[in-house]
Design goal:
Blueprint: H1 2-26, H2 30-40, E1 52-56, H3 66-83, E2 92-101, E3 105-107, E4 112-121, E5 124-125, H4 128-151, H5 153-181, H6 187-231, H7 236-241, H8 264-267, H9 278-289, H10 291-300, H11 303-323, H12 334-348
Parallel strand pairs: 1-2, 2-4
Antiparallel strand pairs: 3-4, 4-5
Bound molecules: zinc ion.
Zinc ion binds next to helix 4 and helix 6.
């Protein structure tokens, strides 16, 4: 019986193998079509596009099953495929993958993504299709972080230095916690050591917060741009975050993530980091990323190049604000900073071969 069963399995394998060979000879596989499309768009190099991702459980929540967390990993790699010739990507990341959660974020100090398979806001669950947009957004933060040293070098020097200090402080805190759990420290000693650690690090904390404040609106803009380009969709974050129960309460926060539905009345309210560059999002879509314009641009440069030109424009304004020590944003300068960002991006949108403008008013 065992022999017969093994023979049967062998025959099935042989049959499947010949079938796949037959298919290969007969018509191009999807991969071949994809790779041909990529090389048409100047995105031919496909080696070393993988980020080493370690999936970990998130605090008290159950870890996501491996098939679903693989979808998250695949998305990261699919983005790497189109950016790898023009931008850097993280070589290593941790991934806290959970089933349902109201939040998603990228932690620069931990180099970790926390991603839910489905958003759950109070009692309302979103379809996983919409959560993928948020995965791309969060990975967009990781990409922006990875490239900040190239696009805004003077700002990045201090920013990365302080991020490293924060990372070390986190590790020290963790080490103390372990000593306390192992009972090598009493509760009094543990608390005293924590306090000392905080004092030791207090001198640079304010500066770290200021730098974070300067960067935050840019960071959110960059992450939304990555999601919008990856999915060729102006509504990624609006679709991902909108839920009818919250529409009034949030005052249009989700709507202000749209790249197309600009309402001046809403723009005035968007001082939060995520919505600060609402107007500059609309300009980018109107002149560069709308479908006909995008198709035209992608005939001349790859998607990765397009993103790197946008990142460069952003980096120049970050450097400017850092040089002027302008860490926070006032209501009065809100619209002006939006215009400056769009102007800076627009000035970078040139075809390097011909010197011609890629986007246009
Ligand atoms: Zn974000």
């Amino acid at each position: 019986m065992i022999f017969l069963r093994n023979l049967l399995i062998f025959l099935v394998i042989v049959a499947l193998f010949s079938l796949s060979n037959f298919n290969n000879q007969d018509r191009p596989t999807k991969d071949a079509v994809r790779s041909r499309n990529r090389s048409l768009a100047g995105e031919g190099r496909t080696s070393n596009y993988k980020t080493q991702i370690t999936v970990k459980p998130y605090r008290f929540l159950k870890m996501l099953d491996s098939k679903k967390s693989q979808e998250m990993i695949d998305l990261v790699h699919n983005i790497n495929l189109w950016i790898l010739d023009d931008l850097s990507f993280p070589k290593k990341l941790d991934l806290f993958a959970v089933d349902q959660f109201a939040n998603a974020y990228f932690d620069t100090e931990e180099m970790a993504l926390t991603l839910p398979y489905q958003f759950r806001f109070e009692h309302h669950t979103k379809h996983p299709l919409f959560t993928k947009y948020a995965w791309a957004h969060e990975y967009g933060h990781a990409l922006f972080f990875e490239n900040i040293k190239d696009i805004a070098p003077r700002f990045a020097q201090r920013y990365l230095e302080l991020t490293q200090k924060a990372r070390t402080q986190n590790n020290d805190k963790e080490a103390l916690q372990i000593l306390y759990q192992e009972k090598s420290l009493t509760k009094v000693e543990y608390k005293a050591a924590l306090k000392e650690l905080e004092l030791l690090n207090s001198s640079w904390r304010t500066e770290y917060e200021q730098i974070g404040e300067l960067l935050a609106p840019f960071d959110e803009y960059a992450a939304d741009v990555v999601a919008a380009i990856h999915f060729s969709n102006s509504e990624t974050m609006n679709d991902s975050l909108f839920y009818s129960y919250d529409a009034k309460k949030s005052g249009g926060d989700a709507e202000m993530r749209s790249f197309e539905r600009y309402k001046p009345s809403l723009a005035k309210k968007g001082m939060a980091y995520h919505t600060f560059f609402y107007k500059a999002r609309t300009e980018l879509w109107k002149y560069c990323l709308n479908r006909p314009r995008r198709v035209e641009i992608l005939r001349r440069v790859s998607r990765g190049k397009l993103l790197s030109l946008i990142f460069n424009g952003m980096g120049q304004l970050i450097e400017q604000r850092y040089q002027q020590q302008k860490f926070s944003y006032t209501v009065e300068e809100h619209e002006k900073v939006n215009d400056l960002l769009w102007e800076s991006i627009d000035a970078n949108m040139l075809d390097q071969n011909s010197g011609e403008e890629l986007c246009g008013n």
